[in-house]
Amino acid sequence: TAGAVYNEETSKFEFTMPAAEISSVTIKYAAVRNNVTVDAVNCEVKGNVENVQVNTTVTFTITPDENYRGNKNNITVTCGDKSVDFTLTGNELSFTMPNGEVTVAVAPTAEYEITAADIMDGIVTFKNLTTATGATEFTSSVMAIDGDEIEIKVESSDGYTPVAVYYGDDEVTADHDTGKYIVTAAAGKTVSVEYDVQEYTITADSVDGKYDLEVSETKLGVGEYVSGTVTAADGYKVTGVEVTYGVEQTVAVKFNDKTGKF
């Protein structure tokens, strides 16, 4: 053999030619291995960090502390001053090991609660579409971190119609295709709803020759007070007042047969 000198920095080698034909040049090689440094805040990260072979898949399992949640926005993987592409599936982080020392920084974000302001004329419930699995139900509040997609369901009490939905100071517009209210979670914001009172018509007419009927208003909102007077024609007397709506449903009425007022 002829002793060869190899320069790792330049990838060049050299040797002194002997007085003979060179029958072969044999290259000795080994897989390059590097280490991974993990910087974990508000969580525990488990995985192989020593002597990781270049171009192999590296996988870490992230277990956030209670009431914390990780996503791609609070994870960085770097090799020197360059970012390394990674994937996050559930709590499993993976990437292809580059040719260099790698730093993985993970800092899950604290979850916060999204609720609705006190609403007297309806019910507001929520679903976190980012974390929902299967047939997740709507609830009166939902835990989230910034960037989560939240669906808001607005239901009205009888006689009220929602006219505006707000997330913080921003009005939320229902999706054109689905009619759903979707917002992006942001800390410190509360949902509120403005309602209009739906007005209903009262149909009540006098009957010639029997009685005259006067009603204080003929169009009112639910819960408003209605009064009126019934005056019987000669030869008749009023024995009661019945108010109906829907399908044979009645409203309780106070009637004074001496004054004709109800």
Can you put this structure into words, describing what you see?
The chain is mainly β. It is 0% helix and 45% strand. The strands form 11 sheets. The protein has a 4-stranded mixed β-sheet, with no helix packed on it. The protein starts with a strand and ends in an 11-residue tail after the last strand. 13% of the residues are buried.
Q: What's the arrangement of secondary structure elements?
A:
Elements: E1 4-7, E2 12-15, E3 33-34, E4 36-40, E5 43-47, E6 52-53, E7 57-64, E8 68-69, E9 75-79, E10 82-83, E11 87-89, E12 92-96, E13 102-106, E14 109-110, E15 112-114, E16 122-128, E17 142-144, E18 149-156, E19 160-167, E20 170-172, E21 181-184, E22 191-197, E23 199-201, E24 211-215, E25 219-221, E26 228-232, E27 243-245, E28 249-251
Parallel strand pairs: 4-13
Antiparallel strand pairs: 1-2, 3-6, 5-7, 7-12, 8-14, 9-10, 9-13, 11-12, 15-17, 16-18, 18-21, 19-20, 19-22, 23-25, 24-26, 27-28
List keywords for this structure.
45% strand, four-stranded antiparallel beta sheet, four-stranded mixed beta sheet, mainly beta, single chain, 262 residues, 0% helix, rod-shaped
Low-confidence stretches: none
Q: In percent, how helical is the residue content?
A: under 10%
Radius of gyration: 38 Å
Please report which band the strand proportion falls in: under 5%, 5-15%, 15-25%, 25-35%, 35-45% or over 45%: over 45%
**Termini Cα gap:** 121 Å
Topology pattern, helix = H, strand = E: EEEEEEEEEEEEEEEEEEEEEEEEEEEE
Compute the number of strand runs: 28
Shape: rod-shaped
Number of helices: 0
> What class would the helix/strand composition place it in?
mainly beta
The strand line-up of the biggest sheet is 4-13-9-10
Task: Please summarize the sheet with the most strands.
Answer: 4 strands, mixed
- On the 0 to 100 scale, the average pLDDT is 89
